[in-house]
Amino acid sequence: MRQGLPIGYEDFKEIIEHDLYYVDKTLMIKRLIDRHGKVSLFTRPRRFGKTLNLSMLKYFFERQTDEKGDRSDNSYLFRRLKIAGCGGQYMTFQGKYPVINLSLKSARQPDFEMAYKSLVDEIAKEFDRHAALLDSGRLDEGEKERFLLIMRRKAEKIDYAKSLDFLSACLAKHYKENVIILIDEYDVPLENAYFEGFYSEMTTFIRSLFESALKTNSNLEFGVITGCLRISKESIFTGLNNLDIYSIINPWYAEDFGFTEDEIRKLLQDYGLMDKFSEVKSWYDGYLFGVREIYNPWSIINYIQTALGDRNSYPRPYWSNTSSNSIVRGLVEGADLETRREIEELIAGRDIEKPVHEDITYEDIHESKENLWNFLYFTGYFRKLEEFQKDEVIYLRLTIPNVEIRSIYKKTILSLFNRRIKKADVAELILALEKGDGESAGSFLSKQLMETISFYDYAENYYHGFLAGLLKCQDKYEILSNRESGLGRPDIAMREMKFRGMAIILELKTAEKFEDMERLCGEALEQIGKQQYEKAFWAEGCCSVKKYLTTPKGIWYSKPTYRLEL
After folding, report:
1. What is the mean pLDDT of residues 506-517?
2. Do the Cβ atoms of 178 and 131 come closer than 8 Å?
3. Does the domain made of 424-565 have the CATH classification 3.40.1350?
């Protein structure tokens, strides 16, 4: 019997106890033990298993007690998993340490006060999880009083800034073991604060929280932090010299986040979907962590869930719904001529070269385009094809990783385009079309084209959507797209909304070269006549019918033909 898919599950114990499908990532435990890192920061794109992995670490390392104070045993959760086969020297770490487990994702709030209170709430919940310490004979009354104030959300700001250090001291005192600290989504408060306008205040608080917990904490066994972006040490990790950073460039732990190709093949085989492998690969593969090929896990399990209900269903961009994609929108909306050209190159399947900057802050994102490209790379919107050094600077050759991410760019570009054309005043264009003023019409359309980004490589369907969208921004003409007329369907037809009004026919052709335009426009004119596109409009009582023959390089209009240069 097939196991259920863990969609929406981020708790390791729940997945194992409910016998849901689990892609085994427990060898990460072995790597952490072997490397002996004091504080490890893992940066990966959203929905690549960071929260689930921290949950796994908590259940493996944590020394838990029940309500009676008796020690709980979670070793059964790992019996059938890879870490159990690594030998007793690793399983002796199971259930050995007190653990502090804190998620900062709830700090995505509209102002500092609400974000700060959300963090206080998360800290208080973690104190409450360790409330058994209030019955410990090893803590004095002063410590218990301070503990209660933090747990009841009544402590001072300085107490919350130093809360993880204080909780570590209490746990170490009670259990006589150093403490493991796990912090998930550490950069969410910072990203949110940047976009909401209180970055400095939030940075100050997070820096104090981290320094006391990870830099000067004598009770720390080791710490693991996860996030999407590597924030510069100067911003958050000031003076934290014991920090090991594992970004998507680093080869260590590359296969511990996301799914490898072997894991994908097994998943598809287990659910009887191996015939879908090529589709899965084109849509959700394409990431390179270190030197390992990695698939997007969130999209994969959603794809399989959908395919189990309907094998003929189409793949969807599931990952695009996990965040606002605000950085992509910012790149597109603020694109200059060079950036628009680079985006067009990327969407066409080609690549660009950019210097890599791993240490950035959110404040740096818009200081230069290079920072913005780097942000998009580290958060999952690009794939590294090659890494090389030039003039003592490390460069990356970047491309869009897969169909799913390309669809995000296309959707963002179309959204921007639609917003722009809705604001466009097309009266100038309409007047030029009515009068046969080629120079004015060409100038207007050229300006509009220069302000948008093409992802169809100037193909006919791109211009069809472009022209139809522009022409709908007026109420004088009804716009008919591919509407049956005569013996065929003109690409775009405009019919004046009054009795005995004017009709305008636009026929589109693609010209690869400038010298091909006249031949193609001649073919289009012949097509209009042969297919009798005008016939329906004369029958409807139109007083005149004008015919435009258009290519991506120009617009032609005539009695029968005028040429309008763009």
Report:
1. 71
2. no
3. yes
